[in-house]
Amino acid sequence: MANAGKRRDFAPESGIAAVGGIARARGIAAGGKAVYGAPLGILMLEARFPRIPGDMGNATTWPFPVLYRVVRGASPERVVLDGAAGLLDAFVAAARDLVAQGAEAITTNCGFLSIYQRELAASVGVPVATSSLMQVPWVQATLPPRQRVGVLTVSKSTLTPAHLAAANVPLDTPVEGTENGREFFRVLIKAEQTDMDIDAAEADIVAAGRALVRANADIGAIVLECTNMPPYAAALGDALGLPVFDIYSMITWFHAGLRPRAFA
Question: How many CB atoms lie within 10 A of CB 250?
Fold first, then answer.
């Protein structure tokens, strides 16, 4: 009776015993949530472009379950080109809804939402990581002297000092965007069509990365602001010969803190 009276909030990785070949939970299970086993909540922009494997909005991207909540009215154009003006209350409400469902931490699917990092973190009572840009100081700390991080964004012209400062990114960080490409920007941000030429999108990102490194010979690593760029991170890393960090690298790290591996 060693487990009698012992209360546990079971994670998928723990609290399971095999009895007669049948797995069952042990002890007294803690309630209080609507959904269990998916501790990470993702706030999604309202969009209709393809979300291929590797994209944050494709659930097969993640090696663990996640919860999604679409923020109505938060189009990529409004968030990226218009500074997410007037959308804070909608994002706070959606984040609170995810927490009520069972999320133990919140992230978003647009790096430009760094602009709301402080407000969201203060409003929902759980850890919040709004933007892949938050990795820049961490990656910078790993680089040799006289090297720095470069940022690849979907829209250089609208990634402002306020967005960088909100993620603790140095304001002199080299930045390049995809606005001059022929596919990625016009499909994702301008919503000119719902289909996307994946090879052309990859070419846009690789070309922007090469331009960034060509203009800044001291770059030692790349951070991708855009959460739709991870499908192309491997191609970019191969083309540049540099480490590439993105929302996938950040969120897998984030989740590891929510569900630490239990070592036997």
Answer: 22
Q: How far is the CA of 45 from the CAs of 36, 42, 104, in angstroms? A: 24, 10, 20
The total domain count for the chain is 2
Q: Which CATH number does the domain housing residue 152 bear?
A: 3.40.50.1860
Q: Is the whole model's pTM more than 0.85, yes or no?
A: yes
Nearest to 244 by CA among 145, 152, 129, 169: 152
Interior/surface letters 99-116, b for 16+ CB within 10 angstroms, e for the rest: beebbbbbbbbbbbbbbb
Cα(28)–Cα(8) distance, rounded to whole angstroms?
Answer: 6
Range of the domain at 158: 133-246
1 domain-assigned? no
**Tens-place pLDDT, residues 18-42:** 444 444 557 888 888 888 889 999 9
Contact status, residue 104 vs residue 138, Cβ threshold 8 Å: no
pLDDT tens readout for residues 64-75: 999 999 999 999
